[in-house]
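G., the chain you wanted modeled:
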Amino acid sequence: MAMIIGIPREIKDDEYRVGATPDGVSQLVAAGHGVVVERGAGEGAGHLDAEYRDAGAILVDTGEEAWSRAELVVKVKEPTGPELGYLRPGLIVFTYFHLAADEKLTRAVIDSRCTAIAYETVANPDGSLPLLAPMSEIAGRLATQVTAQYLMKPSGGPGRLLGGVPGVPPVKVLILGAGAVGTHATKIAVGMGADVTIMDINTQRLRQLDAEYKTHIRTRTSTPTNVMDEARKADAIIGTVLKAGARTPQLITEENLAELAPGTLLVDVAIDQGGCFAGSRPTTHQNATYRAGHLMYYCVANMPGAVPMTATVALTDQTIAYLLRLADGPAKAMKADRPLALGLQAHDGKLVEPGVAEAFDLPLADLDEVLDAMTED
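Predicted structure as tokens:
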């Protein structure tokens, strides 16, 4: 069956990505679907209106029109501001939701009775997260770049060069979490010559990194005691811990902060899911850092938005296959594809993501029962 897909302009601060490239749109149109694109939606990522028109999209003047005409909205960041008013029964929204960090959005999704499908919880049988992976890779690489930037004096840092120079030691960088973000942060940090320690609860993953980098990094099992032992010695800490669908565990607590060295830079890549450091709060690319006592925080909630040309292509490359299946019928697609079904957060007022229900003490519906109900609709 044909479906109308809406691609609005992103309205989050400093967000220049777009939900699909013109190439992605052409694939949707070739499959028989209609695509409505808000004018200017792709400009920040280098995709002009004419490219979308040539791909077969219909251009509309406002975000409200893109939302109202669509049966399925595909975007990058969670609905916010006026977009919350566009949620409605029967509408499917496919995006990064990160509901466990946002009670207002969670309740808006439930109250609107829309169908919310989150990129970040689509999960393969091996536990990998195919739609989160491309942004995690970008965020990890950027995390080390911004660490280098904000250690410099003009950026408010102490004036340290990440890799040091002969006779002057490099910066000690502690990376918490050895998933996709942590792995890519490690790659860039090693390449820039930093003194790198990476920690995780998964010792098998640490063995893999140890074999890859040999003496260029140190690995250590993540326990509260071990984390603080390393954190006290660090010049910069990059927090990358993720618990899919749930609020991020806080690895450095309020009591721990006083033990960190003056001038320590805390880069909280996990801020979308609530952050893994006490004192973390979302920032923007325009106002990326803040000081709290003797510490500096960097907590930009949409880091890949800084490189929208790269990020939009990388995201569309991964999402388009899932989007094509959803457009052919969401109930059928999710019943046939368990990884995609795990992306479902809520449908018709019923919440099915356990981590979100736990975060806000909300009733949890059974995923399979909700999918059965969708099939009957």
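DSSP finds 14 helices and 15 strands in the chain.

Shout if anything looks off.
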